[in-house]
Design a protein that fits this description.
single chain; 397 residues; alpha+beta; Alpha-Beta Plaits; 2 domains; 4-stranded antiparallel sheet; 18 strands; 24% strand
Length: 397
Amino acid sequence: MNVTERFLKYVSFPTSSDEFSETVPSTEKQKVLGKYIAEELEKIGMEKVFLDENGYVYAELQGNIEGAIGFVAHMDTSPDAPDAPINTRIIEYMGGDIELCENISINVSEYPFLSEYEGQHLIVTDGKTLLGSDDKAGVAEIVSMCEYFINNPEKKHKTIAVCFTPDEEIGRGADFFDYNRFAAKEAYTVDGGALGEIEYENFNAASAKVSVKGVIIHPGSAKNKMKNAVLYVNEFISMMPKNEIPACTEGYEGFYHIHDIKADETSGEIRMIIRDHDSEKFKSKKAFLENLVSYLNTVHGEGTFSLEIKDSYYNMKEKILPFMYLIDNAKAAFEKAGVTAKTVPIRGGTDGARLSYEGLPCPNLSTGGENFHSVREFISVESMEKMVDVLICLAGM
């Protein structure tokens, strides 16, 4: 099975995670894919294959040269877009816009990088679901790399440890990672975007929930009595920084992203994420929310607004700097595979950020995918094939 066939099989499994679930993994369907992958790993000849009760898949391939290297990818997909039924097609892209379905296209005017893929074969959906290349492409590329070494035992490689995690998209992918079961002391996540990207700087990240209490009474006798939580939610949002949102930021610029609102007259809830590469700016963003809630409570009464903030992960840069040879090795592997590498900051996070803080340095590598978390997601067949070559080169260093 080649990497494209493998990828298409994996994306046929719906695996979105659910931040509102308290189970591990957050959705049982992730375990269905995990079971399939574990069985596949055993069939191709991987060693110490194990699917644990939390949905993590581990495996190992004994090396024939000194050293060990790890590779990590996640099986879940984002809950931001529907995950089923995923209907894929492969197009030979010769330029111009790509029509996915009526009223949904990938337009060069909006996505100018699309022109860089002219002459390649792109996997897309019918525009009704995400594709799942984040991060089933990473899983498929890692498994294909392992199968290459199994089928070519004369090829030199270090001992390879792999782990495929659940719930990365909701920030829990490293919660139950078993370091004792993982045979490597350094690793790479294969969970990035366009081919050639190497990432060791990511956002500091937190989630926040603002709860609002209202007082309901008949509108006819509401003067000086009613406290409409819907209006209070609107007031809170209107006081947020207008330009510190994803649509207005890029590069190292951080943001607030409100992704869920529930409200009626008696209660309201605002859920958001907070992101910034700079740790001091990250702290300032959290302090802004605390001060805004405090101010609104002085206006509307103590206890009207309450705030919960939970840190998710931190910028891995300071944990990777002592291990910059990992970045040098990755650059060399890309070069050997004929790919121009570039280091870029992640406008997001990976399991590698959490793992790096737990003592497993783990920078991130590209998969070849674009437009993640979107019905306009796509991935290049040629990019996936090249990434398998890159991983083969990296494991052999």
